[in-house]
Amino acid sequence: MDTITKVSKSTVNISTLKLVHNIFYQAVPVGGMGFGTIIDSEGLILTNNHVVGGAQKINVTLGNAEVLEGTIVGSCVIHDIAVVKVKGKNLQASELGDSDKVRVGQRVCAIGNPFSLMGGPSVTSGVISAINRIIKSERGLIENLVQTDVSINPGNSGGPLVDVTGKVIAINTAIIPFAQGIGFAILICGMEEIC
After folding, report:
1. How wide is the angle at C-alpha 72 spanned by C-alphas 154 and 92, nearest 5°?
2. What is the C-alpha to C-alpha distance for residues 137 and 56, in angstroms, rounded to an integer?
3. Is 76 left (phi over 0), alpha (psi -120 to 50) or beta?
4. 149 with 182: CB under 8 angstroms?
5. CA–CA distance, 126 with 86 (Å, rounded to integer)
6. Neighbouring C-alpha atoms within 13 Å toward the C-beta of 113
7. Catalytic residue annotation
8. What is the pLDDT of residues 26-84, one digit of tens each?
């Protein structure tokens, strides 16, 4: 329980505003939501590219309800990863784990805020069901994913998948909507090169 409390302090809600054009070519604002993980005390946040990509405005809400403006400082569409920067000081950063050691059957927890419900982040738990999965998305193929039976819902995208010690081993990214207990997360290993 203390582990989850600690990890939750390094997670953030992300809300975005994108301008899309309707059938009359008028710009219409569309809001989005997701989650993120603070990976540096100076304000670097790891999330999914599909959460923030193309956004004209990014707001990041910290655990203390403080809202900061975010800007994208790195992204990779192919791997669906983005790094957002906020002007923060002494933020609680997550501890990154070694995702090369992830094994099928390993217990994990997902932290997020499905549907941006009031009351802070939620936690779901389960196991790693498979590794090295490849899925097809509207953005193309995403490779080297872990499959998990942890509940992942809209609003969980970009949130951390953590091991039993509270270390972030992956970033939640996708589900198969017509199935139950099939979610996918992007492994932390190799992100240094991507970001």
Report:
1. 75
2. 23
3. beta
4. yes
5. 32
6. 21
7. 50, 80, 157
8. 888 888 889 999 999 999 999 999 999 999 999 999 988 899 999 999 998 888 999 99
Asked if residue 15 has pLDDT above 60, the reply is yes
pTM of the predicted model as reported, rounded to 2 decimal places: 0.88
What CA–CA distance (Å, rounded) separates 52 from 155?
12
- Main-chain dihedrals φ then ψ at residue 123, nearest 5 degrees: -125, 135
Beta carbons within 10 angstroms of residue 182's beta carbon:
18
Q: Over the chain, what HEC string results?
A: CHHHHHHHCCEEEEEEEEEEECCCCCEEEEEEEEEEEEEECCCEEEECHHHHCCCCEEEEECCCCCEEEEEEEEEECCCCEEEEEECCCCCCCCCECCHHHCCCCCEEEEEECHHHCCCCCEEEEEEEEEEEEEEEECCEEEEEEEEECCCCCCCCCCCEEECCCCCEEEEEEEECCCCCCCEEEEECCCHHHHC
The pLDDT of residue 195? 46
Decide which of 4 and 95 is more confident.
Answer: 95
Averaged pLDDT, 96-124? 85
The two structure tokens encoding residue 145: 């994913």
